[in-house]
């Protein structure tokens, strides 16, 4: 009955409300209760020969001469608890075991050619994957994984690793992932990730949102980083990211950043930055909401094409850069750069010499309209 009550709360939340509108504890209790109830009612199912044959994807590939071998298997959503028949398919390169009831994936060790593996939405407490020398992609999201000890040594060829929605408090087992380009470990219990810079030197896309991070100093030495999503943490200060010449997207919204100047200093020397999100931080000395804040950020980071999830318009860039300039020639130059189709004069003096059909047609007047007055 208690489980049923929790499930009812979990399933009947108001339309349009996301998980953040509930307390995280209540959401987790509801999900855990649902898993326990399903586990108790459903019979144990094994991936036996018959079940495996039904799960094979019809994409035959030649395997030496006239013989053929299956390369893909989709055994998702079958209430599987064991995988006894996997060894019969050593040529598999893609395997989907998501949405089952697996507590162990040790049987996957028989598939030495496996390139892509999904074990998302199972009951795993640890990723007990044996040696997987060919594995490039592993999706283990939405389990109950507490640690990934030794994973970097057993699956050293991984390029994409997805661990969202688990119970991780550390990523210390990732040492050795020298080919890892994408790591997603949001919605965990991570409080520090200092080992990432050395564990995955080629990491380009990183998502650590909704954790307990306070210190992200390791980012400063991750030169290959292009995307960093760190929303909903406890970060109060960004490190200087001047070495991150490829950084194009940064999301540090919903943190504890208090200094806009420190944010500017931290991102100085990031010429590739195009997308930035910093909303819901307690910045001191500035209005953290509305157009004024947006224009201030566009002045600080003129290379942005998207801010807080919204595209940056050309006229916004003109307004932003005009806020800190009273020079007419400078205003015209700014406007000509961002609005080249308006046919503005090359300088304020040239604008003054042009004949006017009306005062409002003056290029000099147009340079001031909506930007600095």
How would you characterize the overall build of this protein?
InterPro entries: Leu-rich_rpt (IPR001611), Leu-rich_rpt_typical-subtyp (IPR003591), LRR_dom_sf (IPR032675), SDS22/Internalin_LRR (IPR050836). Keywords: Leucine-rich repeat, Repeat. It comes from Emiliania huxleyi (Coccolithophore). This is Protein phosphatase 1 regulatory subunit 7. It holds the Pfam family LRR_6. Helices cover 25% and strands 12% of the residues. With 373 residues, the chain is an alpha/beta fold. The strands form three sheets. Strands 4-6-7-8-9-10-11-12-13-14-15-16 form a twelve-stranded mixed β-sheet, covered by helices on one side. Strands 1-5 form a two-stranded parallel sheet. A two-stranded antiparallel sheet has the order 2-3. Helix 4 links the parallel strand 8 and strand 9. Helix 1 packs across helix 2, helix 7 (290-300) packs across helix 8 (314-322) and helix 8 (314-322) runs antiparallel to helix 9. The chain is elongated.
């Amino acid at each position: 009955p208690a489980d049923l009550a929790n499930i009812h709360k979990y399933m009947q939340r108001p339309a349009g409300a996301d998980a953040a509108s509930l307390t995280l504890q209540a959401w987790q209790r509801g999900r855990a209760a649902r898993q326990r109830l399903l586990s108790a009612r459903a019979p144990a199912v094994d991936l036996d020969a018959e079940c495996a044959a039904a799960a094979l994807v019809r994409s035959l590939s030649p395997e030496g001469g006239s013989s053929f071998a299956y390369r893909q298997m989709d055994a998702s959503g079958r209430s599987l608890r064991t995988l006894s028949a996997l060894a019969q398919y050593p040529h598999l390169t893609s395997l989907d075991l998501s949405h089952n009831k697996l507590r162990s994936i040790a049987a996957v060790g028989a598939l030495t050619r496996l390139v892509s593996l999904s074990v998302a939405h199972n009951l795993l407490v640890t990723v007990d994957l044996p040696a997987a020398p060919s594995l490039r992609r592993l999706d283990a999201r939405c389990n109950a994984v507490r640690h990934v000890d030794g994973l970097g040594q057993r699956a050293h060829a991984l390029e994409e690793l997805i661990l969202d929605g688990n119970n991780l408090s550390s990523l210390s087992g990732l040492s050795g992932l020298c080919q890892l380009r994408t790591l997603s470990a949001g919605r965990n219990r991570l409080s520090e990730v200092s080992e990432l810079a050395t564990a995955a030197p080629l990491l380009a896309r990183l998502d650590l949102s909704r954790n307990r991070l306070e210190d992200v100093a390791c980012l400063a030495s991750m030169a290959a980083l292009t995307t960093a999503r760190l929303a909903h943490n406890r970060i109060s200060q960004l490190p200087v990211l001047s070495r991150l010449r490829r950084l194009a997207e940064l999301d540090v919204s919903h943190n504890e950043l208090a200094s806009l100047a420190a944010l500017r200093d931290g991102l100085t020397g990031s010429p590739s930055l195009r997308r930035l999100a910093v909303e819901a931080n307690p910045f001191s000395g500035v209005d953290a909401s509305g157009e004024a804040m947006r224009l201030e950020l566009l002045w600080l980071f003129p290379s942005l094409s998207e801010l807080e999830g919204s595209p940056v318009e050309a006229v916004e860039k003109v307004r932003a850069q005009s806020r800190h300039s009273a020079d007419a020639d400078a205003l015209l130059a700014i406007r000509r750069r961002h609005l080249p189709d308006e046919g503005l004069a090359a300088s304020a003096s040239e604008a003054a010499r042009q004949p006017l059909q009306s005062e409002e047609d003056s290029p000099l007047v147009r340079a001031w309209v909506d930007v600095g007055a």
